[in-house]
Amino acid sequence: MTEQHPLAETAVRLGRAGNDLASSRLAETPLFQAMLQAGTRHIYADTADVEELRSTIGTDDDAIRAEVDGNTANQPLVHRVVDRILEAGDAEGWLEALEEAPGEASFEELAPWLYAVVCGRVGGGIVAAYAAGRPWEVSLQLHMALSHRPDEARRVGRAIRRMVPQAFVKVPFRPDEPSAFLIARDLEREGIPVNFTSTFSARQAVAAAMVSDVTRTNIFMGRLNQGFDADLLGEHVDLEAQRAVARRRNDDGVKTQLIVASVHDWRTFVHTAGCDVYTVPCEVLSNFLQQGEVAPEDITSQLETSYEDRLGIDAAASDKVGMDHIARLWRVEPELIEFLRELRRDTAFLDDADGDALFQRFDDAGFGDIFHAPDARDRQELDQGKLPDLDGRLIGRVPLDTHYSLLANADFERYQAKIDEAMAKHAGAAAGHAASS
Known about the structure:
Blueprint: H1 6-15, E1 26-27, H2 30-37, E2 42-46, H3 50-57, E3 64-65, E4 68-73, H4 75-88, H5 91-100, H6 107-130, E5 137-141, H7 150-163, E6 167-172, H8 179-189, E7 194-197, H9 202-212, E8 216-220, H10 221-228, H11 233-252, E9 257-261, H12 267-272, E10 277-280, H13 282-290, H14 315-321, H15 323-327, H16 334-345, H17 347-352, H18 355-364, H19 376-382, H20 400-427
Helix pairs in contact: 1-6, 1-7, 3-13, 4-6, 4-20, 5-6, 6-7, 6-20, 7-8, 9-11, 9-16, 10-11
């Protein structure tokens, strides 16, 4: 679908990097090959930095590691390169062109489009460097303000895909904005692949698959381990989610693949080998390649493995939160599957539903706790960091996956505000234009 919208047309023109594809020679890497042989389909680098990526997947003889076939970028990663992108381009000219497109508009209204231009430049540069002779999938995340503006979110998602034809649009799951499911579904219906992010549990992954049929969804497993000082909690949740999503592919015809995300330790590759997709920071990819403990022949599929008896959760944390509460991260109730099947069949409802109606449908079925609209005191707690406060007011009031999703989005919003501030500065935004917060 071609968007005939003044801002979209302007943003697409500005966001296309126009770089020629660099020629590259591909080289196989035995450790990565072992992951593919175990059943993994894709390995992505978690970066927005073309030079960082080059230092990770380039070989000593100037080849590129063939198995790394994409990258993912979110607000914290784009923040690392935003000044470089703005300085290399014409940020002031970009803003002027966007201002002319719709007539009168504030910087806050234009910031999602200017951010899309930045993402287009990031994605186009990386594709130009690494996509010659093979597919390259680059995930670019929507501006965080768009979760509250579903129609505009769809327009910006379309524009990003036009800027970078290899792009997946990253749509964050917002427990406070049920319309996230509908934004993702509508983009997928138009042939725009979605990477549904900010997800932390098997039930969230299954809901993304059944309601939105997204191409990818995630488990941020490293944060799960961090939050409970655990050894294998995140790995266990990922494997259970992988099995749950695979069953939905087999039984319900969805296409969703699971991404193992927020990987902090190279051993996660070994512990979860065979999961659909991995997105891994460059430092961790390098650690995996440089370690001498595990050889390629030691890597085998773990898709039938359970770590439930060796999660390594801190005892004080498990006592405080309760293991039943923690176990909801990996358990998917049969009743939820049946509800999602019924919802999936009710196409008339889904075609007309907005976020409020979708929430009510979940709530009436007893699954409304997948959503939560934080109040001012909740938001104050969420602004303290990326991990749950085990002594805070949210613990026990909302499920852990919902809690983690709220924390992830609060973190993305903090970085979004910093990016908006940088864009306003470089673009010379007028005094009346305030960066969004």
